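Try this one yourself first.
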């Protein structure tokens, strides 16, 4: 058993090369070894979002604060509420972030999932819903 206590973990600012706007990331790396699992708590300021990206394994996102805005490439922008779970398949090109009206925090569970980053989500793409 491993325990990651939020009160003792450091958070770090998101990388502006892979996020638009401000977010803070708390890493819970190596939560499991087989399959290798990293967990991230990501707190987005209003309007902040990831760039377009893919993962090599599944990614599970659970919203724990606010409204999550997300999109799969080729689909429309969607919103998820606190408690909702978004299950992203390996190779699905997508982005996720806060709504424009308030902050959003999600927990991301990445299972054998390396991430490939692509271009930023433009304001026009972000606003489509
Ligand atoms: Mn993702």
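Now uncover the answer:
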């Amino acid at each position: 058993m491993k325990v990651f206590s939020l009160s003792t973990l450091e958070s770090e600012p998101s990388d502006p090369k892979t996020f638009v706007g401000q977010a803070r990331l708390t890493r819970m790396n190596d939560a499991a070894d087989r399959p290798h699992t990293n967990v991230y708590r990501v707190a987005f300021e209003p309007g902040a979002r990831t760039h377009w990206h893919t993962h090599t394994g599944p990614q599970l996102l659970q919203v724990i604060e606010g409204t999550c805005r997300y999109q799969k490439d080729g689909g429309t922008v969607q919103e998820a509420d606190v408690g909702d779970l978004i299950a992203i398949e390996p190779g699905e090109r997508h982005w996720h972030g806060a709504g424009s009206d308030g902050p959003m925090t999600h927990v991301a569970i990445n299972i054998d999932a390396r991430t490939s980053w692509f271009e930023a989500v433009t304001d026009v793409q972000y606003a489509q819903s």
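Discussion: The first strand starts at residue 11 and ends at 13. The two ends are 42 Å apart (CA to CA).
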